[in-house]
């Protein structure tokens, strides 16, 4: 499993709108993407910062979304995000939430 780790600088007083956009527009789009598993977003309104982690079956799925679906997400977020978000892809090594083994395979 892989995660796209996205760090965003938020415009002033936009944390609530970011949450609304993610719930109503971005998650429905993510659910249509091949290999998408989950999305977790963290918001620090006092620092005008947010971090979003989306989880994917394969690195190829995450990279394909980065090329095809993510440009649309950037447009959707343009009113709440300042500048360009930073995107990194990581392999998930452990997760109690996703019930992974040390080898990275999901348990039944």
What would you say this structure looks like, in words?
With 108 residues, this protein is an alpha+beta fold. The chain has a single domain (2-91), classed as 2-Layer Sandwich (Alpha-Beta Plaits). It is built from 3 helices and 4 strands, in the order βαββααβ. It is globular, with a radius of gyration of 14 Å. Residues 101-108 have low confidence and may be disordered.
Q: Report on the biggest sheet.
A: 4 strands, antiparallel
How many distinct domains?
Answer: 1
Q: Uncertain runs with pLDDT below 50, 5 residues or more?
A: 101-108
Q: At the first level of CATH, what is the class?
A: Alpha Beta
Structural class: alpha+beta
Q: In percent, how helical is the residue content? A: 25-40%
Q: Give the strand order of the largest sheet, numbering strands 1, 2, ... along the chain.
A: 2-3-1-4
Radius of gyration: 14 Å
Number of helices: 3
Strand content: 25-35%
Report the strand count. Answer: 4
Mean pLDDT level: 90
Quick structural summary:
With 108 residues, the protein is of the alpha+beta class.
Keywords:
108 residues; alpha+beta; four-stranded antiparallel sheet; 34% strand
Write the layout of secondary structure elements.
Blueprint: E1 2-10, H1 15-31, E2 36-44, E3 49-56, H2 59-68, H3 70-77, E4 81-91
Antiparallel strand pairs: 1-3, 1-4, 2-3
